[in-house]
Design goal:
- It is a single chain.
- The chain has a single domain, classed as Pantoate--beta-alanine Ligase, Chain: A,domain 2 (2-Layer Sandwich), CATH 3.30.1300.
- Strand 2 and strand 3 form a beta hairpin.
- The protein has a four-stranded antiparallel sheet with strand order 1-2-3-4.
- The protein has 103 residues and is of the alpha+beta class.
Length: 103
């Protein structure tokens, strides 16, 4: 197992759990809320996992089907070590009518 910048083993399961928890919260938001908060304004917060590892969690929105169309919401998680070069990410696509695209 690889180590992060603090010498702790990177826990992919923990990082994925953090990403999925953020995705769950975001899926409860309306399309307009997500657009206004995250489009062209990525938000990054630090979250400490149960193992003591500090993760950077970035949330952003991108147009997936043109302006005022479907939004792709992406959550990327890294631990500041090697994972920063290839962050673990989860996403979903939300249509303006509130339906989830591709699900």
């Amino acid at each position: 197992m690889l180590a992060n910048r603090h010498g702790f083993a990177v826990d992919k399961g923990e990082a994925r759990g953090i990403a999925l928890a953020q995705i769950d919260d975001l899926r409860r938001m309306r399309w307009g809320e997500l657009r206004d908060r995250y489009l062209d304004k990525p938000e990054t917060v630090e979250v400490r996992g149960a193992t003591g590892t500090t993760y950077q969690v970035q949330t952003q929105a991108l147009w997936d089907s043109g302006k005022d169309g479907d939004l792709r919401i992406i959550v990327a998680v890294d631990d500041g070590g090697w994972r920063a070069f290839v962050p673990l990410s989860e996403d979903f696509i939300l249509a303006p009518d509130g339906s989830f695209v591709g699900e």
